[in-house]
Target: DNA-binding protein
Amino acid sequence: MSAHPAESEALLTPSEVASLFRVDPKTVTRWAKAGKLTSIRTLGGHRRYREAEVRELLDGIPRQRATTA
Model:
């Protein structure tokens, strides 16, 4: 069993995921610990997230429309 993602698979940092969801990076880490988001650990122990999974989760959230007055 291989724990390595496919070479062509894009991975995002917690900061990149946080900016997409407009939350703090610590929130992204809590989501991973709660099992809401799958994380991959680098050799240095840092978390990375599969872009495809993040985009899928993001697409499930209704978008807020900017209101102009």
User: Anything to note?
Assistant: The helical segments are 14-21, 25-34, 51-59. The first strand starts at residue 11 and ends at 12.
